[in-house]
Amino acid sequence: MFERLITYWVYGGALAGILLLIMFPLLTASWSVPLTLTFFHLPMYMLHQYEEHDKDRFRIFFNETIGGGKEVLSPLAVFTINVPGVWGVIAISTYLAANVNVGLGLIAVYLAVINGLVHIGHALLFKRYNPGLVTGATLFLPVGAYSIWQFQLSGSGGFAAQAIAIVVAVAIHVAIIAYARAKGAFLSK
């Protein structure tokens, strides 16, 4: 049972993303703009993940380019990175924004912005398309920029909130690369 969830998570995520978008106006009607934008990053990310992971494209691409042909990302690693690592981080960011400080919603925003920039950097480095590039560039960057602007307008996007969000988002992406490098070094032995 878990093997099928680990293998096919992206399809349930894409459908859940569509459902969340349909219900979005109802769910967020009484929320502040920054909190609404924080939550919006979850269904947006789920749709991005469909472009990225349909037919296991990203894992295959990543193992080919970053892993040098070795399996540095397994299906379990991809599941862990994307379900608890992305959906979970966005959910926690949304709860923190609602209950602690709305500026912590920027964690969800910068998670997407950094991911979009990584996709663009990867495309420039390898001079080719990578799975997730289109939605990373056309959704994450403009929606992220708009979200950051709205956080600033509301007074909740101060230096501390920005710094925390950037550090968390960069750390998550660095941890993925470090994991892949360590796995690749282990496989080389």
TrEMBL record:
* Keyword entries, A-Z: Membrane, Transmembrane, Transmembrane helix
Note the Pfam families from the entry: HXXEE (PF13787)
Top-level taxon of the source organism = Bacteria
- Report the transmembrane regions from the record: 7-27, 72-98, 104-126, 159-180
Fetch the InterPro entries from UniProt: HXXEE (IPR025671)
Name this protein carries in UniProt: HXXEE domain-containing protein
Species name: Candidatus Methylobacter oryzae
Phylogenetic lineage: Bacteria, Pseudomonadati, Pseudomonadota, Gammaproteobacteria, Methylococcales
